[in-house]
Design brief:
single chain; about 350 residues; alpha+beta; Herpes Virus-1; seven-stranded mixed beta sheet; four-stranded antiparallel beta sheet; binds zinc ion; nucleus
Amino acid sequence: MAENTSASNNSGLVEFNHHLVSEQETRMSGSGGSNSGGTSIGNPTASVGTVSVLLPSGGGGGGGTKRRSAVGNNNSHNVGGSTSNSTSISADLASLFECPVCFDYVLPPILQCQSGHLVCSTCRPKLNCCPTCRGPLGNIRNLAMEKVASTVMFPCKYSSSGCPVSLLHSEKVEHEELCECRPYTCPCPGASCKWQGALEQVMEHLMVAHKSITTLQGEDIVFLATDINLPGAVDWVMMQSCFGHHFMLVLEKQEKYEGHQQFFAIVQLIGSRKQCDNFAYRLELNGHRRRLAWEATPRSIHEGVSTAILNSDCLVFDTSTAQLFADNGNLGINVTISTNV
Ligand SMILES: [Zn+2]
Ligand SMILES: [Zn+2]
Ligand SMILES: [Zn+2]
Ligand SMILES: [Zn+2]
């Protein structure tokens, strides 16, 4: 038996903002001793380069010569120090790019108000005036700040969760998507559960909050989805335990194209993307003189199954195919997990 849950739509805007704020708080409070013991944040060479570009006016006014010597002093003071010194300077520079509304970084294209205040491109369309000075926003591009932004090492969004990595803004989004410090979300499909936490806590969460999900032991089991003719979008979920790991089997019925209902079946590992490489899964429908099979590497729950379903990178069949294999409205899917090692 599998648990079925109707898919519900997801309005997580408030939580999202809250999430960003709490990250910001931690980012500001503790930059030094992360628990993973990561010492070298970013690339020291690049940081030093940044420093020399970026510490111009020490004393403001004065003639060209005076000013140049002030820069020299600043540089020798800062660059002479340790790597951590230049790292903290890079962090200070990164903080100049903080959006005053969402505390995320303001990245190119960078627009400023008439007084020079910055706001990020996500918040900007929602604002009528500058959040700092209340003046008009206009469309003034700040090319100098954009140039500076491309030399600054920004800390990963998940630095407060222990990620020691700092990167150029152009590499930031890609890293954060794959970052192992990004919290895991609840692997149950349907987006109705907002739980987040560490990988080690996922199983406990499932056992406490999703008690009704059945678990079967063994590498070769039958995932029995009942009442597959239920109308609307429906998910069937069950767990399979073997090789010392837990897998979540998901069967989803949804209408990707209007008027055309399809079934999507996929297996995800309660584990990291790296651990997935050690396994393969096979899904098989068996009917009278018919067989439909799919083999692939399980998805990590860190990645989730929604993209795979969207790309049909899973076992896909339509409702009439399902009828060929169903028995009294119940569909049995043979699931086999194997190891590659
Ligand atoms: Zn913003
Ligand atoms: Zn302003
Ligand atoms: Zn990271
Ligand atoms: Zn959950």
